[in-house]
Fold this protein.
Amino acid sequence: MDDLTLYEEIIRLKKERQPAALAMVVESEGSSPRKAGAKMLVTLDGCLLGTVGGGKIEADSITAALEVIANGQPRTLPFSLTEEHGLVCGGRLLVYIEPILQAPQLVTVGAGHIGQTLTKAAREAGFQVTLVDPHPEGSDYRNHGFIPADLVCPAQEVFTQLPIDRNSFILIATRNHHDDFLVTRNALATEAGYIGLLGSQRKKTALRENLEQVGLPPEAFARVICPVGLDLGAETPEEIAVSIVAQLIQRRRNHAASGRSDSPGCGMLATDGPAQVAAAPR
């Protein structure tokens, strides 16, 4: 197997957001079964592509790769190829294992001014963004200069057509409260790690009442950040987009640093974002 085949498989897995890890021999001495540069791709279900040496080396590397997939942290695995360690080749081997990380996924529901500017800013910041227009009958995104939506479907169908996991971010900014609340309720039925709703203190109160009316517990409301964005005093769509992307990055990095990236929901409500968000054009 050549490296091109392995790299093509990595690209396929990333596009499909399938977890995997790459093991590579980075040092070898003596009569090691594989030399530096040998690679093996391990998927979550234990499927392999390539080899780092077979036997105990491979078995231990697969076990370690599955742990790397689970915790997202790379590691090195040293092997002393002596009888004392169950190997008779002689020499030494060092295997480096890194996770095949997926770009953080942001689903922006609402293709108006905020959705447009947020999509541009988030993509520049490294997010894999899906811009959703929940108004098939016609929306501003069709205006000259607007980014075409990646998905056009009724508000109630958004999350039936998109894979959402615990590392997904959802930002809701439709053109009316009815669709905002409908999409928010559907978002709460997913495992998304971040659910943000563009709005004001008044909208937050209305959301709480809406969720109570449909029988959702207080814990559901606590998963929703409203208003969204760091308090930068933002007013224009571009400034608001910057404040939201900053909050997404903050959440992403904090979760990665604390090992909480696998925790569903986003915890208790954060400090409110700028009040100007309420009046911003959609």
Notes: Residues 3-99 form one domain. The first strand starts at residue 20 and ends at 29.
